[in-house]
Design brief:
The chain is mainly alpha-helical. The protein is 80% helix and 2% strand. It has helices spanning 2-42, 52-141, 156-166, 170-173; strands at residues 144-145, 154-155. Strands 1-2 form a two-stranded antiparallel ribbon. α1 (2-42) runs antiparallel to α2 (52-141). The relative contact order is 0.04.
Length: 183
């Protein structure tokens, strides 16, 4: 699409150069004709002629009167072409802005999904850390201990349950070391 626009610009430049060269050629041709034939231009059937300056003025007025509307027309065409080109560029810019807006919205959506995934990952890490801590604690409670002085053999949980059952009341069972807890 851009190549076509540049080709049109080059075509317009070539047309402008041709118009300027044609204008210059017309002015030079008129001057050349005047220089070689000005005696016939100046001759009047009554024998009265005009001066060279007057004849050059008349030919200049003629060329200016003919070429000024032509050059004005081509300058108007160049202006219209420029406006058309700017409109196309503005349309292309608007399309690119729409595309960048869609891309930004997609990035926001992706970023939101990443945050949700990170939160889920953090929750899973915390959950599995707590699960590991629970398993370690459970394994530690269930470790088998040999009989020691005054303590029967078994796991810590079994010892605790045995101690709790041997107490007369719930309040007395709450004391881990065998002493009743104070309120």
């Amino acid at each position: 699409m851009m190549d076509k626009a540049w080709q049109k610009i080059h075509v317009m430049e070539m047309i402008a150069v041709c118009v300027l060269l044609g204008t210059a050629w017309m002015y030079l041709k008129a001057y050349w004709d005047f220089e070689h034939n000005y005696q016939t231009w100046l001759a009047n059937p009554n024998g009265e002629g005009m001066s060279r300056a007057e004849a050059l003025g008349l030919s200049g007025d003629f060329l200016g009167g003919v070429l000024n509307p032509i050059l004005s027309f081509f300058s108007l065409l160049a202006l219209l072409f420029t406006l058309r080109l700017q409109r196309r560029e503005l349309t292309a810019t608007m399309e690119e802005l729409k595309k960048s807006t869609v891309a930004a919205e997609s990035n926001v959506r992706l970023f939101t999904e990443q945050i949700a995934a990170q939160r889920l990952d953090a929750f899973e890490n915390t959950f599995f850390s707590l699960l590991k801590l629970f398993n370690n604690t459970f394994e530690k409670i269930n470790e088998h201990h040999d009989a020691e002085a005054g303590q029967p053999a078994g796991t810590s949980l079994q010892r605790l349950m045995l101690h709790a059952r041997s107490q007369p009341t719930l309040e007395a069972a709450r004391g881990v070391d065998g002493r009743p807890q104070r309120d």
